[in-house]
TrEMBL record:
Record field: transmembrane: none
Protein family (similarity comment): Belongs to the short-chain dehydrogenases/reductases (SDR) family.
GO molecular function, one term: oxidoreductase activity, acting on the CH-OH group of donors, NAD or NADP as acceptor
Protein's organism: Lachnellula suecica
Gene3D superfamilies: NAD(P)-binding Rossmann-like Domain (3.40.50.720)
Pfam families associated with the record: adh_short
CDD domains: carb_red_sniffer_like_SDR_c
UniProt name for this protein: Putative oxidoreductase
PANTHER family: SHORT CHAIN DEHYDROGENASE (PTHR45458:SF1), SHORT-CHAIN DEHYDROGENASE/REDUCTASE SDR (PTHR45458)
């Protein structure tokens, strides 16, 4: 059985990951820590029906004191055990209607999507080090792929794209630095999902995309260290007419 921590769990992909993880047998998932910056009624309801397996932890990844307090709370809840899997999911995606990167957009997006991930990973590193799995999954996007950048020019979110490219490289740095210590770090794109962030016109339902993402995270081993994973969804092995994306399960290009 493994313990998980999911950041940005109050809605969308993060919430659905917590819900699906909590639905798995206790022999596979022992406890799920769901972080949120503020009140999260949907998470509270999930906690009430989880028989103690889901724990809400207040965490703002842009605030160092908040992150440290969260790590202390999780450590106490684990009672000396390590944290097996960290899923860095919290992120923002501002739009720039004219397609130009503004300073405010870039600074705030990097603060959450890159520096925030680094801050959380550092704070929870001692707990991860005590576990057997030592697995960290950073939720990224193919928008951060340099190779695919021309395809995604139609989406006016340059700060988001830059931040995900930076997150991908942060992931590689961690993977190289800590492979010798038994860690597995990888970036994974969950696809374009019909969430508040992705919109109603996105490719996949949040349930479908989340399951495919968790399948990859749970199945990842040491051979995935430092890689940029893509989900596999049946029927999306090639790009459908009128679509930009495909979900064939093969690693995304850098």
């Amino acid at each position: 059985m493994a313990s998980y921590l999911v950041t940005g769990a109050s809605r969308g992909l993060g919430f659905e990951m917590v819900r699906q993880l909590a639905s798995l047998p206790t022999s596979e998932v022992s406890q799920v820590f769901a972080t949120a910056r503020g009140d999260a009624p949907a998470l509270q309801e999930l906690v009430q029906n989880s028989s103690g397996r889901v724990v809400i932890v207040k965490l703002d990844s842009t605030n160092e004191a908040s992150v440290k307090q969260a790590a202390t709370a999780v450590g106490a809840a684990l009672s000396g055990k390590g944290l097996d899997v960290l899923i860095n999911n919290a992120g923002v995606m501002p739009y720039s209607p004219e397609g130009v990167v503004t300073m405010d957009n870039l600074e705030s997006t990097l603060s959450t999507n890159v520096v925030g991930v680094h801050r959380v990973t550092q704070a929870f590193f001692p707990l991860l080090k005590k576990s057997n799995l030592k697995k960290v999954a950073n939720i990224t996007s193919t928008y951060g792929s340099n190779a695919l950048a021309p395809i995604y020019m139609i989406t006016p979110s340059p700060a988001y794209k830059i931040s995900k490219a930076a997150l991908n490289h942060l992931t590689v740095q961690y993977a190289l630095d800590y492979e010798k210590d038994g860690f597995t770090f990888f970036a994974i794109s969950p696809g374009w999902l019909r969430t508040e962030l992705g919109g109603d016109w996105a490719d996949l339902s949040v349930e479908e995309g989340t399951k495919a993402t968790l399948d990859k995270i749970i199945g990842a081993g040491k051979e995935q260290n430092g890689q940029f994973l893509n989900i596999h969804v049946k029927g999306w092995e090639t790009v459908p007419e009128g679509k930009l994306n495909h979900y064939d399960g093969k690693n995304a290009p850098w």
